[in-house]
């Protein structure tokens, strides 16, 4: 609830029930008005453009009514109510300074002590609470396992169906991960793979990857996941200048492993938003192209920071390891969590299938479930 509302022509100042004070501009309130002439009642989309708002807009009145805010705009003579809780959730009159490399609320960075978040196949398909918990784990930690699934080829597509759609690439709707003769990609050998993000040569990069186990009787081949955001935090704390170099200059990535395909991208290894929020990690030694966008006098320092980030990623104290059994899978946020594989022998068999999907679908499904089932979080 609101205690008081005072205003001049361009700003209203509110005091909430707990004494918190916040200011809102007239133009911001008019643009975000919640009335049905401004916002479509069914989907909340805005029905006006910025040009529809009078350039000489002002506040004619602002008062507390039943604990909420009611304002009148001139020259329109339009009166609109704003719920106090809505205003509290959208306060922008606050300190906006952040340390570079900050993460948004709800993200937890981790190292090797984390127990891999896990859910049961039948449970997430039948129980909305279980499904929501699994999706929430992916959003918070950047990965989660799924156990007890079927072992028929293509079963991974049913994982993507839980929240969205498969993103088809030149590899097809999904791809096989098993030993091949003359492979087009090192993933199709028994070699160990350094922790990496997939397909950094794409723009945009696939934001989710699903790996699904159909057979795994080979010796070795354990999966390892590493939190790239945590590695970036370590670099920022230990070497701020190096962090700034990897965030401030674009690396280059390239893939041309099969006929008719030549994929290239130019993006930083550590991507930040304009206000310094960690957005994405791109780290894949196999797909790195020559770096040509770093000034000559900063190239050696850039490589030193690159090496240091790689050392954190390779640090055994950073990784969570597990061996997938048939019918088990895991999903990673490919903009954040790197995945690796220990080498495996030629004896036995190891057959995984992989596919890509989009994180916005997962986050949308999770948000919709949170709105529909708020009690599930309790």
Automatic annotation (TrEMBL):
Per UniProt, the enzyme's principal EC class comes to oxidoreductase
Which keywords are on file for this protein?
A: Dioxygenase, Iron, Metal-binding, Oxidoreductase
For this protein, the Enzyme Commission number is 1.14.11.1
Report a single Gene Ontology molecular function: gamma-butyrobetaine dioxygenase activity
Enumerate the CDD domains for this protein.
CAS_like
Q: What is this protein called?
A: Gamma-butyrobetaine dioxygenase
Q: Name one Pfam family in it.
A: TauD
Family as reported in the entry's similarity comment: Belongs to the gamma-BBH/TMLD family.
Keyword Metal-binding among UniProt keywords: yes
Which PANTHER family does the record associate with it? GAMMA-BUTYROBETAINE HYDROXYLASE-RELATED, OXIDOREDUCTASE AIM17-RELATED
Q: Which residues form the Gamma-butyrobetaine hydroxylase-like N-terminal domain?
A: 6-88
Q: Which Gene3D superfamilies match?
A: 3.30.2020.30, Clavaminate synthase-like
Instruction: Name the coenzymes or cofactors required.
Output: L-ascorbate; Fe(2+)
Domain TauD/TfdA-like residue range list: 120-356
Q: Which NCBIfam families match?
A: carnitine_bodg
Q: Which domain of life is it from?
A: Bacteria
Sorted alphabetically, which InterPro entries does this protein's record hold? AlphaKG_dependent_hydroxylases, GBBH-like, GBBH-like_N, GBBH-like_N_sf, TauD-like_sf, TauD/TfdA-like
């Amino acid at each position: 609830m609101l205690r008081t509302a005072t205003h001049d022509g361009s700003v209203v100042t509110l005091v909430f029930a707990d004494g918190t004070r916040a200011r809102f501009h007239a133009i911001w309130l008019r643009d975000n008005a919640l009335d049905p002439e401004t916002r479509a009642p069914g989907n909340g989309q805005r029905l006006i453009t910025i040009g529809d708002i009078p350039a000489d807009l002002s506040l004619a009145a602002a008062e507390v009514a039943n604990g909420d805010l009611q304002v009148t705009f001139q020259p329109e003579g339009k009166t609109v109510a704003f719920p106090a809780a809505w205003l509290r959730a959208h306060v922008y009159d606050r300190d906006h300074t952040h340390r570079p490399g900050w993460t948004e609320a709800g993200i937890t960075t981790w190292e090797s002590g984390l127990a891999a978040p896990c859910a049961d196949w039948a449970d997430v398909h039948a129980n909305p609470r279980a499904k929501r918990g699994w999706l929430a784990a992916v959003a918070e930690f950047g990965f989660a396992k799924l156990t007890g699934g079927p072992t028929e080829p293509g079963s991974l597509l049913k994982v993507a169906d839980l929240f969205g759609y498969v993103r088809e690439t030149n590899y097809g709707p999904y791809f096989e991960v098993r030993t091949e003769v003359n492979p087009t990609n090192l993933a199709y050998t028994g070699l160990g793979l350094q922790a990496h993000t997939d397909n950094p040569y794409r723009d945009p990069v696939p934001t989710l990857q699903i790996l699904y186990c159909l057979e795994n009787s080979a010796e070795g081949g354990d999966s390892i996941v590493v939190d790239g955001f945590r590695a970036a935090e370590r670099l920022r704390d230990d070497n701020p200048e190096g962090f700034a170099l990897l965030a401030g200059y674009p690396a280059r990535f390239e893939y041309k492993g099969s006929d008719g395909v030549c994929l290239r991208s130019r993006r930083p290894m550590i991507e930040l938003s304009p206000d310094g929020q960690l957005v994405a990690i791109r780290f894949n030694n196999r797909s790195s192209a020559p770096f040509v966008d770093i000034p000559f006098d900063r190239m050696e320092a850039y490589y030193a920071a690159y090496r240091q980030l790689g050392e954190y990623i390779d640090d055994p104290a950073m990784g969570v390891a597990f061996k997938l059994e048939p019918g088990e899978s895991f999903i990673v946020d490919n903009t954040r969590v790197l995945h690796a594989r220990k080498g495996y022998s030629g004896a036995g068999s190891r057959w995984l299938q992989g596919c890509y999907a989009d994180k916005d679908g997962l986050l949308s499904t999770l948000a919709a479930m949170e709105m529909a089932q708020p009690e599930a979080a309790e």
